[in-house]
Amino acid sequence: MSPQKRVADKLLWETLGRWKRSSPELDRIQFLKTVPFFDKLSNRQLKSVSDIMFERTYETDESIFEEGQPGAALFLILDGKIAIEIRRDTSTTRLAVLEKGAFFGELALLDEAPRSANARALERTRTLALYRNDLNGLIDRDAQTACQIYRSLASTIGDRLRSTNELVQMQTPADTAGPG
Amino acid sequence: MSNAQDFEEKERERKARRRVFYLIFATLVLISGGFLIWKLRSLILPIIVGALLAFLFRPVKDRFKLRWLPHELQVLCSFAAIGVVLFFAFNTLRKHIPDEEQKLEFKVRLKYKLNQKYRQLVAKSPEGKSNVVAPFIEKEVGPLMDKINQAVELSPEERDLFIKYCAGYNGKPPIQNKFFDYFRANQNTMKYVVPEKASAHPAAPQAAVAATPTQPPAAEEGANLEGKLSVWVLAPLIFVFLGFDNGQIRRFFISLVPNRYFELSLTVLDRLDDAIGRYLRGTLIECFLVGLTLAVGLIILGIPAGIAVAIGVVSGLLNAVPFLGTISALVIGVSYALIAENIRPLIPGLNPNDLALYVLILVVLTHVLDDLVFQPFVLGSAANVHPLVVVIAIIGGFLIMGLWGMLFAIPAVVVVKTVVSTFFKELKDYRII
To answer: Which of A8, A15, A138, A43 is nearest to B65 (CA)?
Structure first.
């Protein structure tokens, strides 16, 4: 192989590599790797998940979902800030502010139960949405990946249940804790 | 403070401008879309057929969704599987499609047997007495028989060809002698209704002469046919492109939906996909079951397997249009039963001479079975459409698009019904209305 051809080949592969590295799909996979929800998935599995996700951009103050609406998708924050709030009569209580890498609305992956809080963008926010039935479809095509996601989901719900229990125990007076 | 007010004012103006822009854009899209649909309306049917086929065969594609197989190969494998099944199906069916000789023989037999049965019906008893209904049959069925005789009459070229086949022609063995006897008997068949003198109206030839110039020339007909065929090339193309789609089309449409309706649109699309898929695939299974029941029933009645399967396939496919499957099974089955010979029913005790009656009972039984078992079992509530709506939809479909309209009337009703009910339910659930 002539030196010129070798240089041309090298240039071609470098260009291709750069193009591949900078593709939005690869960026998205890189991002998913950093999310604890998907940290046990391989690159191939992350690609399967990435293929079924929808990217949505919300403007400041725009609602993502409202309390009482049927849940259909889990949301991951690509960048921006989200407030999780509940409204009671005239007052609004802010439960949490979530930032890049956080996820919310995960219970929608289980069933169609109504959302328990409102989610609102505090600034221009990009999210990735994972629709419940697309995840169900993944069970047929790639059961291992879907199973891994459901495990992460179960673990997240378990953690939240434990912390809720602790909170309830802390707020419950000792004399009403049960028969001694 | 003034800066904030200025910003708010600008935002308000921007919103107003955006609203006007969207309104103008939507109007332009509607007008140009309507114009394009009207101009390209001949493409609608092939596109619908291609899309429906892709929709029907999607489960086959899903079967090949293996994680180690690239998407393109998955699609190619599913196409190959569909191709192999269709090839064998058509190959099997082709054997039962009558050739030129069989068609001529069939016409001769049909004319002979029908006239024989008709004459038996209106025959006088040996004492010279005719039965009570004979005059009525002669009056009502006589003109129909004349028309049928005219329709199944061999043309002079066909007659010459039949005589050649009787002696053995084109590498085929000679036709049985009895069919030649039928052919000769057919030559002597007279008209049952003598035309009244008044009907020989002098205006008739004029009408015939006047009608001649309106006939399109052969070249024009050929061009029309070519145009229609080239339009139908779209159907397989749409089928292939939708086959290769890996959710990109859905993704594109969802990307157009405003954020407020994002989850709603996902849910509605999914419900529609599920309901329409269940209906279409259910209909396909129902058609298969009806065809199978008819074919097995006809074989039990002693009709040759090839003919029974052919009647089953045709009636099963036409069963996609309510009533049409039953009517076609009745017409084809009874017609064949009338001309059938050497029939040996598999059930002992059945009289082969009453085959037409047995076929009639079989078709009625199949229809009842379809209504009471197949439809509720296979389709469930997927096609819960009122019978009156079914009738109106079929007639409306026929008036708008002819036979194709009849075929697509019920699926269209089911789609509209599902869209409306799902959309309103979800809009309420999402507290949008």
So the answer is: A138
What residue numbers bound the domain in which A80 lies? 26-172
Q: How close does chain B come to A72, measured CA to CA in Å?
A: 6
* In-domain check, residue A7: no
- For A56, the enclosing helix (H) or strand (E) is strand A53-58
Does residue A2 lie in a domain region? no
Backbone angles phi, psi at B283, to 5 degrees: -65, -40
**Vertex A68 angle, CA A66 and A71, to 5°:** 75
Task: Say if A103 falls within a structural domain.
Answer: yes
Residues B235 and B52: their CA atoms lie apart, in Å, by 9
- The minimal CB distance from A131 to the residues B260, B266, B430 is found for B266
Residue of A nearest to B65 (CA): A141
A residues 137-166 closer than 8 Å to B (CB):
140-142
Q: How far apart are CA A103 and CA A82, in angstroms?
A: 10
Residue A73 in domain: yes
From first to last of the 180 residues of chain A, give the pLDDT tens digit.
677 777 777 777 766 665 555 577 788 888 898 888 888 899 888 988 998 999 999 999 999 999 999 999 999 999 999 999 998 878 889 999 999 999 999 999 998 889 999 999 999 999 999 999 999 988 888 889 999 999 999 998 899 889 889 988 888 765 554 443
A106 DSSP 8-state letter: G
ipTM score: 0.81
Domain count for chain A, please give it.
1
Residues of A in contact with B62 (CB under 8 A): 140
Helix (H, G, I), strand (E, B) or coil at A70: strand
Instruction: Count CB-CB contacts under 10 A for residue B110.
Output: 20
